[in-house]
């Protein structure tokens, strides 16, 4: 996929996110939207995966450590062909397999059930270690929130990954600067994030704009060259990216748009899509 195709796909994923959360009348749009571009890059360019064979033992793995951003992951999986897009409107509905947090037993393409913050990275580290022990070439990617890394378990997992030189592991931090209670720096500052991962023997790649595909490509290409240590990609993003009234607003961390807000959000994204079609 070229850059323009990735941008168009990310815009579709954003529409899916807003539609699913609106239909559910609950969920987490802010962080799903900030991560829409990295979801797109991973599932449409970076990872060795096959939607027709989601349990392929040699596939790359992805763990959504910040599991509440399930609308973003589900939208990417649906766009990639793991299950019908039409099912996204059943998000969080009674009886739907698309629960509020990822469930590996019922959702095709989900490699790890997650939602308890801090735990996903531990599972990803375990998968990476298993790959090394089994002599496999697959890589493991995990996405964390910048609020999530306030959890101590994250750093236990990082210490282990660094000590075991797990160079098949890529940890991505979605540094949108906001969590449910406000600015991450005010709640319990995780900064400097890059220096912390460096201290745990990670190769750190800082991305100034994690909503830009050129910068994402540069980061993931660099990650491929790293040997002998795990990689941490720390990317600055915009919470609520793509929806005018949600951008950089902590209040949209975990709230669904009403009918009027949904209409405005979809108009924003339709305009963005039209602009991309004219490129």
TrEMBL record:
Provide the Transketolase N-terminal domain boundaries: 7-265
Q: What protein am I looking at?
A: Transketolase
From which source organism is this entry?
Fusicatenibacter faecihominis
List, alphabetically, the SUPFAM superfamilies matched.
Thiamin diphosphate-binding fold (THDP-binding)
Q: Which cofactor does it need?
A: thiamine diphosphate
What family does this chain come from, according to its entry? Answer: Belongs to the transketolase family.
Q: Which GO terms describe its molecular function?
A: metal ion binding; transferase activity
Highest taxon of the lineage: Bacteria
- Which Pfam families does the record cross-reference, listed alphabetically? Transketolase_N
| Regions crossing the membrane | none
Q: Which UniProt keywords apply?
A: Metal-binding, Thiamine pyrophosphate, Transferase
């Amino acid at each position: 996929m070229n850059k323009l195709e990735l941008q168009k796909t990310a815009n579709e994923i954003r529409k899916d996110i807003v539609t699913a959360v609106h239909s559910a009348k609950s969920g987490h749009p802010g962080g799903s939207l900030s991560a829409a571009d990295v979801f797109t890059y991973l599932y449409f360019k970076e990872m060795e995966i096959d939607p027709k064979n989601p349990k392929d033992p040699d596939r790359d793995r992805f763990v959504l450590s910040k599991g509440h951003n399930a609308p973003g992951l589900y939208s990417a999986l649906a766009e990639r062909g793991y299950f019908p897009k039409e099912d996204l409107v059943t998000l969080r509905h009674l009886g739907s397999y698309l629960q509020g947090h990822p469930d590996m037993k019922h959702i095709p393409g989900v490699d790890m059930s997650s939602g308890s913050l801090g735990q996903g990275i531990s599972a990803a580290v375990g998968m990476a270690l298993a790959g090394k022990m089994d002599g496999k070439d697959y890589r493991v990617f995990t996405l964390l929130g910048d609020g999530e890394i306030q959890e101590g378990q994250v750093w236990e997992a990082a210490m282990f990954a660094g000590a075991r030189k797990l160079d098949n592991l890529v940890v991505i931090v979605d540094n949108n600067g906001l969590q449910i209670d406000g600015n991450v720096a005010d709640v319990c500052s995780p900064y400097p994030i890059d220096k912390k991962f460096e201290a745990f023997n990670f190769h750190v790649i800082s991305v100034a704009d994690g909503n830009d595909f050129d910068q994402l490509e540069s980061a993931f290409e660099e990650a491929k060259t790293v040997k002998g240590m795990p990689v941490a990609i720390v990317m600055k993003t915009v919470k609520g990216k793509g929806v005018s009234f949600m951008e950089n607003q902590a209040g949209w961390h975990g709230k669904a748009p009403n009918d009027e807000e949904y209409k405005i959000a979809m108009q924003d994204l339709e305009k963005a899509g039209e602009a991309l079609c004219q490129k």
